Amino acid sequence: MQALNVQMREWLGTDYAKYQYYLNLLYSIYSFPNIVLPLVGGLLIDRLSASKMLMVFGLLVCVGQGIFAIGVSARSIWAMVLGRLIFGIGGECLGVAQAKIITDWFKARWLGFALGLNLSFARIGTALNDNISPVIAAHRSGVVGASWTGFGICGLSFASVIWLTYLDRPESRTSAGVRPDTSYKRSDRIQSKTNNIVGRQAINASCDSTMTMSSDALDEEDEIEKEDEMAQDDQMLCSEILTLQPNFWILSLCCIALYGAVVPFIHVSSDFLQKKWYTNNPTKAGTVMVSFDSIPDIVSAIGSPLCGYLVDKFGHRARYIPLSALLLIWAHVQLGLTPISPIVAMFVLGLAYSLFASALWPCIPFLVKDHQLGTAYGLVTIALNISLTVFPLVVASILEITQGSYSHVEMLFIALASVGLLLSILLNVLDHQQGGRLQLIEEPSSGPHHPEEPFEGHRRSSLSEQRLLHDPYNPREPGFEYRRQRRYSRDLLLEENPDMEDVQAMVTTRSVGEGIITVIPHRRRPI
Ligand SMILES: C[C@H](N)C(=O)N[C@@H](CCCCN)C(=O)O
Known about the structure:
The chain is mainly alpha-helical. It folds into 2 domains: about 5-175 and about 245-440, Up-down Bundle (Growth Hormone, Chain: A); about 205-235 and about 450-520, no CATH class. Helix content is about 70%, strand content about 0%. The chain has helices at about 5-10, 15-30, 35-45, 50-75, 75-105, 110-140, 140-165, 170-175, 180-205, 215-235, 245-260, 265-275, 280-315, 320-335, 340-365, 375-400, 405-435, 465, 480-495, 500-505, and strands at about 505-515, 515-520. Strands 1-2 form a two-stranded antiparallel sheet. Helix 9 (about 180-205) runs antiparallel to helix 10. The chain is globular. It starts with a helix and ends in a 6-residue tail after the last strand. It binds ligand LXM4S7IT. The ligand C[C@H](N)C(=O)N[C@@H](CCCCN)C(=O)O binds near residues 95 and 388.
């Protein structure tokens, strides 16, 4: 919208004041419903399935952009508003579903890099939109052409949603050792529970059965039944939201403060930079500002996957957050209170943007249980949208009251970054007291897996870090089912030619009917 500012106003034929009202309305209608809806989206993702919901949200994005483009073609502002509403609901919930799928697949390795790459594509999209939309609109087709180009891109995005849904199907998850999606898991569990019952009845009924069960195997079966029962409870309930740990809520507050110190600034940066540095040279301002505007997004497009990689490689993900808050304070102090050229400050701002975004989102899976992930991502997305709804309005009010004083606006951003700094220090202190879960290193596993290894994947962890892991074999611990599957599939894969005897040593087989057996992977225990 911002990118097509002038051309859109000319196309709609409205005066400046009315157009500013429409512009704000089109932005607010995107963010406002997302103060609540990502929670509903997240709960649906946890209770149904991330890829099914991804389809629904992807469709909403296409429908929303289609209605918006029709509105632009017909010069109907209310159709445009309706389009943005549907687009916003789909877009933010789509982000939640994406994050859930990425976490399911990359939780044990490369999570920071994968989420960083996801952010990188979002930034590239923003930078391309800012720079290409006006060029498209300047041609014969105008803003109508630019809006329908947007619709075409949404169509391409929906095609990749379909492709992703295919890649994320239950069989691929199972063969890759990835935690199955909720709906599949539930039907699978009902089936396995039925099999267990049938198997038990068959064993009990046939005293002359040729199959005898060792007491170990019976213990194992009892444990598996217990796990099944407990897993039935592991459906995300609304009431569980209140039981999420304080660190999760502090992280959400960090999200409000730090995004609030960056995104609303980017929205007004073009006007600010022009007024402060290029007042007497509007021609230069016109050309320079387009690229200046995009510096934080471009730096973040490159920086986010790199920072994500650093987080994976060296851990300490929560420590990057106060560091990024310090960088934000530096950038805003330099921009707001000094006459120094803004280029360096804009780079620093982009670096801080990369650093906190690629550290903050990968913290979430370390703070909630697996079955709460969608809801947790939904809640942090709500925090983000509160920030993106409230602070642009605060900025607009400050500009109105101070008659356009950007120094006062910069003071707001410095204050927000300082609040982010304090909150992130508190987060690190509390996390340290609880053993440093947020600082763990997850790195790609290369060598063989040792039975005594307490957690999935190879990881350098200090003793204090390991203390907090409790019992990774406890089905109530976050990621239990995921770890068991990973162990099982890794054990099979690590054998170059796994022969059947070895495989049999790892599983218990049950005859549950004529010609039907059920295979239960053994749970490995630390030596
Ligand atoms: C408004 C927009 N959705 C946004 O700012 N998103 C955030 C968070 C994306 C999280 C995806 N896992 C961003 O940094 O782009």
